[in-house]
Design goal:
The chain is an alpha+beta fold. It has a domain of 142 residues. It is globular and about 80 Å long. The protein starts with a helix and ends with a helix.
């Protein structure tokens, strides 16, 4: 009996010693979160796609002045009359209406180079008129052409102003033969030009109307 009691006491001491050895040391028993869940680098993102240009070249001359006072002024004159602009094959034929840009001729001036990019040309003029006329030309132009062209205009008597991304140059004088006002206005904005040439006609706010037709 004493032998069995001694064995029991010995086993109990072994069990207690084992439990004491299993006590927590206060140190984590698992890998730190950073090791268990490594931080992932963000996926590379593509640059945003540029928004399309906020302008459109009109394709119809009559629509340029629809519902404006100009329909009862120069808008009542013949538009792109063959007797004025000529016909294909004529020596002095001037393509009008909705047209395709053409390469500038060899040795072209800056103005000729710009006008070769015309996509809409509108000419209001009575074939019997001596000087009274109105023309509008609109197209996309390379800044390498439009910038030096605009820079050259003040030396030719033009007055130029900057309004945001738009630069406008204009020149009005009096024709000595007919004693009527003649004028030319050029606006360049976002790679688009609008050129207005006129004689013996009043056109207040015409450029604003044309700008609203191009930039919706």
């Amino acid at each position: 009996m004493k032998a069995l009691l001694g064995i029991s006491i010995t086993l109990l001491a072994v069990v207690l010693t084992g439990c004491a050895g299993a006590q927590s040391t206060g140190q984590p028993t698992t890998a730190p979160p950073s090791a268990a869940h490594p931080t992932m680098s963000p996926e590379p993102t593509s640059p945003p796609t540029p928004e399309p240009a906020a302008y459109a070249i009109p394709a119809d001359c009559a629509s340029l002045i629809a519902s404006t006072p100009f329909t009862s002024t120069f808008g009542s004159w013949p538009l792109n009359d063959p007797a004025v602009v000529g016909s294909p094959g004529d020596q002095y034929y001037t393509p009008s209406g909705s047209i395709s840009p053409t390469p500038a001729p060899s040795g072209a001036t800056l103005l000729q180079s710009m006008l070769s990019a015309t996509e809409l040309r509108c000419v209001w003029r009575d074939p019997q008129a001596d000087i009274t006329n109105m023309s509008v030309e609109i197209g996309e132009v390379d800044p390498a052409i439009s910038a030096p062209y605009l820079q050259s205009l003040p030396a030719d008597g033009f007055s130029c102003t900057q309004d945001g991304s738009a630069e406008t140059c204009e020149k009005f004088t009096t024709d000595t033969k007919y004693n009527v006002e003649i004028g030319e206005t050029v606006l360049v904005r976002d790679g688009v030009f609008i050129r207005v040439s006129q004689a013996n006609v009043s056109t207040p706010d015409l450029m604003d109307t044309l700008v609203s037709d191009v930039w919706k």
